[in-house]
Every structure is written in structure tokens, then in C-alpha cells.
Design goal:
The protein is α+β, with helices and mostly antiparallel strands. 36% of the residues lie in helices and 26% in strands. The chain contains five helices and nine strands.
């Protein structure tokens, strides 16, 4: 539940400043409701009263992601530059810097794990799902090109030798890229086999397909 405080000050600005200080947040991370604008004392002596405001903490999803990743990279000793952008219901995060390879891991395992944790954090307790895609040094785009080329080579082998081809084990994110890359190929089909972390994609001739 979001933290909220009610504060009184000589004027609205002072009341807001006091509330922000107590919550330990910036104005951009707060929702402000003015309960009473207050009034000046007559002749500077009679009838004056202070302003009252209610300030509620409201940290944006992108800032939550930034804080999470900044703490993560700092903990493992990586000086990284983190950029975010939000498009529709997706938050894209790009991480750059020296020695950021540790955030990728073998076949992107660490990167996908970070994305998974970020998605869990952002979507906890919310009804409408918001997707978080974390990338490091444009790894995802480069890896996607490699996977698409791998899928096409496998399909060529299947059609040439009429035998199934089993690809290396890979996470679900990468398996989906393989399936999508060959979805329009009328000669072959794909299926996932095995259990994680050894689950892999098998490319094989589509049933009732005549290979020339």
C-alpha cells in the first residue's frame, strides 16, 4: 500500500515540502491533494490559518525498474548506463557500459532471469499485465539474428536429408524465436521437447509433405 501523509504549513508549498521530506521522496514521485489552501491573517494578526495537503507516494514503473537495476549492477560491481522507454504496455530497458557481459550470461540466461525478476516486481498485485524487456548492449537483436539464421539452416538440412534436426537447449524466449522464424515454412514444422533447462526445438518435415 502506498505511503501517505497529511501536513500543514504556512502555505501550500511549505506543507508539500514538509510532506515530501517526511516520506523521503521527490515531487515527481508524489500525488498531491490540497485539502485546505489556508488563509492570510487579517492585518497580519487575526484569523489566519495554515494550508493542509495530503501527499501520497507514487513511484512510476520505470523508476521502480531503474532503482532495481541500479542496485543490482552496483551490488555486482558494474558501472552501467541504464535507459528506459515505455511503449504501450511494455517497458524497454537498455543497459550499456564496460564489463556488462556478466549481465548476459551463457546464451542470455542471466539476462532473461533479470527480465523475469523485473516482470515479477512490476506486476505484483496489479490486474493489468505490463511487460518488461531488458536488453544489454543490444544483445537481444544480435541473438535474434543468430537464432533466425540457425533456424533456416536447420530447415534446409531437414528438407535435404529428410531427417529431423534437434537444436541445442535454449530458454523459452529463444525457442519462441525459432518457432516464429519457421512458422511460414510449409515444408517443415517445429516442436519443443524435453524438460528445462535441457528443453530444445526439433525441426522436422511437415506431415504429408512431399520433399523433392
Amino acid at each position: 500500500m502506498a505511503r501517505s501523509v497529511i501536513k500543514e504549513g504556512k502555505n501550500v508549498d511549505e506543507a508539500i515540502a514538509l510532506a515530501l521530506a517526511e516520506l523521503g521522496i521527490e515531487l515527481e514521485d508524489a500525488d498531491v491533494e490540497i485539502l485546505d489552501e489556508g488563509s492570510k491573517a487579517v492585518l497580519g494578526i487575526f484569523g489566519g490559518k495554515g494550508a493542509r495537503v495530503q501527499v501520497t507516494e507514487h513511484i512510476t514503473d520505470t523508476k521502480k525498474i531503474m532503482t532495481f537495476l541500479e542496485e543490482l549492477t552496483k551490488t555486482i560491481g558494474i558501472d552501467a548506463k541504464i535507459e528506459t522507454r515505455e511503449e504501450g504496455d511494455t517497458i524497454f530497458v537498455d543497459i550499456y557500459g564496460e564489463n556488462v557481459g556478466a549481465l548476459i550470461g551463457k546464451h542470455g540466461d542471466t539476462l532473461y532471469a533479470i527480465s523475469y525478476l523485473a516482470n515479477l516486481m512490476i506486476n505484483k498485485g496489479r490486474e493489468v499485465y505490463k511487460r518488461v524487456v531488458v536488453d544489454v548492449e543490444n544483445y537481444r537483436a544480435q541473438r535474434e539474428e543468430v537464432l533466425i539464421a540457425m533456424a533456416k539452416r536447420a530447415a534446409d538440412r531437414v528438407m535435404r536429408y529428410k531427417r529431423p534436426v534437434q537444436l541445442q537447449p535454449m530458454p523459452a524466449t529463444e525457442r519462441r524465436i525459432i518457432h516464429a522464424a519457421l512458422q511460414s515454412n510449409r515444408m517443415v514444422e517445429t516442436e519443443s521437447k524435453g524438460e528445462d533447462p535441457n528443453r530444445c526445438v526439433v525441426v522436422k518435415i511437415r506431415p504429408y509433405t512431399k520433399v523433392i
